[in-house]
Amino acid sequence: MKAGAASFLNRTGGSRLGCRERRGTETNSAMIYVCNLPEMPAHVRNLRPSHLVSLLTAAEQPPTPDGLAADRHHRVEINDIEQPRDGHVLPEARHIVALLGFLHGWQPSAPLLVHCFAGISRSTAAALIALVFRHDGREEEGARRLRQVAPHAQPNRRIIALADDLLGRSGRLIAAREAMGEAAMVPFGSLVRLDPLV
Q1: pTM of this prediction?
Q2: Secondary structure of residue 108 in the 3-state scheme
Q3: What is the C-alpha separation between 85 and 77, in angstroms, rounded?
Q4: Where do the domains of the chain lie?
Q5: What's the rounded mean pLDDT across residues 9-32?
Q6: CA distances from 181 to 41, 153, 154 (A)
Q7: pLDDT tens, residue by residue, 45-62
Q8: What is the model's pLDDT at position 6?
Q9: CA-to-CA distance for 81 and 158, rounded, in angstroms?
Q10: Cα–chain-centroid distance for residue 87?
């Protein structure tokens, strides 16, 4: 896996790519937003994100919202599980490699919207990855920022572990997730706005 991670970073220019592009943007630019599935269409209309990530099972995947190009809507067809379970799709390295490739195509000067079903686990894991994708060494800061704005966030541990390995973070992303502590229990997460790391 480490060789694959190195190959991925070589192809994408490394995790620090584009970190200076975030300055001087509009109010909703360069933000990472997280929401649940029922509220996603309204947030797409209001926030006008340049890219959308849907982390859901194949049966739950929504159509691409009007006004958003299909190639800017990335679907991650997985269940919210951390261990194998019959009849469920466990997050695998291939899912995260595809997600990282999609994030590489997202310009940090434009808003990104990430959602799962409840806006609590899969989506917050992907949002944390997006937040620190270009900022190697700032995993703890990113996780702390996520907890501040999303008391309900419970980032899926398997997704985080896979990203940690693929990005060559040597356990720092995993440790940052664990340092978030217990989450507030809610049935659905409300809209979260993550300010960029600059």
Answers
A1: 0.87
A2: coil
A3: 15
A4: 2-194
A5: 46
A6: 31, 10, 9
A7: 999 999 999 999 999 999
A8: 46
A9: 8
A10: 24
